[in-house]
Amino acid sequence: MSIGPVSGNGIPITLPTGKTIFWSVTVQAANEQYICVKDSQQNQIFSTQGASSGGGQPTQIAQGIFQAADPTGNYTVYLGTNGGSQWSKVIYDNDTLTLGATVYYGQYTFITEDSTDNDYNDTCLQINWFQSLG
Q: In which element (H, E) is residue 90 found?
């Protein structure tokens, strides 16, 4: 079962130290969406913002890769609007694909509601990793 809705003002997650992390953001909103991830020392890992190209038109606004270097594995996700001046309602979940005790793939998915229509499709942030690359 998914978690939420919760405030987008700082959602704690755990990422496996040393893994290459892939992330992608799509939006379906005319409002400027804000997405930021920070490590346990409050260093910004990535941040992006943007709105749909045509109101509610699905639009990928950013994607990237980073190395999960925080030795604690603790990160914080922020999801809101207008540069973080308002925080969205968020539903999210974490899923892993395993064989025995080995996690071969892990993923967090976050979806947001930035207003009052409760469609939870304004932002979709996906953060994922594999056990090994190549």
A: strand 89-99
Q: Count other Cβ atoms within 10 Å, centred on residue 102.
A: 10
- Predicted confidence (pLDDT) per residue in 42-92, tens digit: 999 999 999 998 878 999 999 999 999 999 999 999 999 999 999 999 999
CATH number of residue 75's parent domain: 2.60.120.400
If DSSP codes are grouped into helix, strand and coil, which group holds residue 88?
A: coil
Q: Is 54 exposed, middle or buried, given 0-12, 13-18 or 19+ CB atoms closer than 10 A?
A: exposed
pTM attached to this predicted model: 0.96
For residue 35 the two structure tokens come to: 């997405």
What total of structural domains would you count in the chain? 1
